[in-house]
Structure formats: structure tokens, C-alpha cells
Amino acid sequence: MIEIRHLKTLIALRETGSLVEAAERVFLTQSALSHQIKELETRLECELFVRKSRPLRFTEAGKRLLQLADEVMTRVTDTERDIKKLTHGEAGRLYMAIECHSCFNWLMPTIELYRNQWPGIELDFSGGFTFEPLPALALGDIDLVITSDPQPIRHVEYVPLFGYEMQIALANHHRLCTRDFLRPEDLRDQTLITYPVERNRLDVFKQFLNPAGVEPLAVRTSELTLMMVQLVASGRGVCALPNWVLAEYVEQGLISVRPAGVEGVHAKLYAAVREEQLHSPYVQDFLTLARAHCLKNLRGVTRITE
């Protein structure tokens, strides 16, 4: 008999592509996970994935079972959500704001999905480059902030959503495209295009230029991500943005990207919530939806296991 634990294991295998990481995801030893899979294959009299394949490849039987896993686990999640609504009620408020100004593309679909599932929750959204959302969160004016720059604020918790890499975007004909990675010194004679926010809130300064004591030739600002990319593509400067933001423009052939430093600059995106609201069912469900949407749809992001 196929059990829920089997379906969870197969989903973990698909998402991680590794027996070791899948075992960690479902809180089993690798030996126990291998035994569970072998037991299921024996029951079904077929193999579910190709051994020693990299990346891991599922057989046709395994793919069919994954379809079942997606259908069943979606229904399980929906049922759990409905029970929480029945138990705790649907009334509440969730006012949101973002400090990550590249997040509109994924946040809007998440909010629309959330509206359908929690119609009784009062939703609102605040934005703008001059707005300081974290202090407003602490005061209770808003309830959730998307940020990559957690600050130590009393009674505010930071829930990790995903990890990402900051990359440097270059025009396709730029001389720095010959490099495998860029050093801070490479930007001394470059115009750096950024969002109009303070430098101490930008990864490119905090984690790349400032530690090396490097100042770009000039800094130009733009409120729109697309405008930043177009300026880069036309050779008017370079910019530093998350890999998942730049991926679609690289795919279209508009720009090229390079890592910032030999190890790259890696960061995390968080949802900031007040302690007293963190465990509210409607807040937890928004966090679950946001994380799942991003891991499924954003290229280059990584799951945070901490």
C-alpha cells in the first residue's frame, strides 16, 4: 500500500535530487530512506528511479507516482488549512511591505493565491523607496516585511524564505565578460546602477565593495528593474541584482552575468513578523505559500534548511 510517507519521500527526492539531502528533508537516515524506497519498489514490483543517475532521473513509474504525490499532498495541505480555519477562525489582518524591491514579480501571484484561500483576512500592501517598513512592523502599523537585511529589533522574528546569489549584470559586449568572476577592483571605473536606497542596504556595497574599500566611478539610480537592465544592455553601466531576477534577461540574450568574487556573494531573503503573530495560522500559511511559490518558480534560489 502506498502511504503518505512514501509520497513525501518521492517529492523530497525530486526537489533535492539526492538521497542524502532527501533523507535530511524527511528526517531519516540515508539507510532508512533507501530501505523505505526499496520496500515500496518491492510492493509495486518496479523501480522508481535510475540508480547512480546525476541528476537523479525517475522512471516512468516513478513519474506517475510523483503525479499522485503532487495531487495527494496538495489536498492534504488544503485540508489542513481548512481545519485551521475552522479551529481558529478566518478573521485577521495582514498588512505587508517589502524592502526587496525585486520581489514584486513573485509576491503579487502569492498574494492572489492567498486571497483565494483566506478571503476573510484583511490584506493591504505598502511600498516605496523612502518607506522604512521594519520600524513600522515593530510599531504594529504593518504585519509582515519581506527583507534581505534583518535588523535586531525587539519582538521581531525573521523567517527565512530562500537563499540566492547576487550577480553582476554586464552588457554582452562588455570587456569584463572575458572574466570568470569579477573582483571589487573591476568596478572602480564603472557606473553602478542601483535602486534609490541607502548603500548600507545594498548587498553590492555591504558584501562586495565596502569590505575591499572600493568606490565605483559613479552611481546611478533607477526605481525600475527593467530600466536598470536596459541601461546595462546599452552599455551605460553595470548593476548587481539577485540571480533569480537576472535569469530571464540572460535567457533572452539581453545581458551577461558574472559572480561577484570567486566564491560569489550569497544572501537570504526573509519574512519579518512580530513574535505575537508568527504562529497565527493565516500568517504561517502565507509563509508556506510564499516559500513554495518561490522554490518552484524562481530560477537559482535555494532552500534554507535552518
Structural description of this entry:
With 306 residues, the protein is of the alpha/beta class. It has 3 domains: 4-85, Arc Repressor Mutant, subunit A (Orthogonal Bundle), CATH 1.10.10; 91-162 and 267-297, D-Maltodextrin-Binding Protein, domain 2 (3-Layer(aba) Sandwich); 164-265, Periplasmic binding protein-like II (D-Maltodextrin-Binding Protein, domain 2). The protein contains 10 helices and 11 strands. The chain has helices spanning 4-16, 19-25, 30-44, 60-88, 104-117, 133-139, 203-209, 225-233, 243-251, 281-297, and strands spanning 49-50, 57-58, 92-98, 121-126, 144-147, 156-170, 191-194, 218-221, 238-242, 256-259, 265-274. Helix 1 (4-16) crosses helix 4 (60-88), helix 2 crosses helix 3 (30-44) and helix 5 (104-117) crosses helix 10. Its main location: cytoplasm. This is HTH-type transcriptional regulator MetR. Residues 2-59 form the HTH lysR-type domain.
Q: How much of the sequence is in beta strands?
A: 15-25%
Overall number of domains: 3
CATH-level-4 superfamily name of the largest domain:
Periplasmic binding protein-like II
Could you say what the CATH topology of the largest domain is called?
A: D-Maltodextrin-Binding Protein, domain 2
Biggest sheet descriptor: 9 strands, mixed
CATH class of the largest domain: Alpha Beta
* Tally of DSSP helical segments: 10
Order of helices and strands: HHHEEHEHEHEEEHEHEHEEH
Helix/strand structural class:
alpha/beta
- List low-pLDDT spans: none
Distance linking N and C termini: 33 Å
Q: Roughly how much helix do the residues carry, as a percent range?
A: 40-55%
Keywords: Amino-acid biosynthesis, Cytoplasm, DNA-binding, Methionine biosynthesis, Transcription, Transcription regulation
Pfam families: HTH_1 (PF00126), LysR_substrate (PF03466)
InterPro entries: LysR_HTH_N, LysR_subst-bd, MetR_PBP2, WH-like_DNA-bd_sf, WH_DNA-bd_sf
GO molecular function, one term: DNA binding
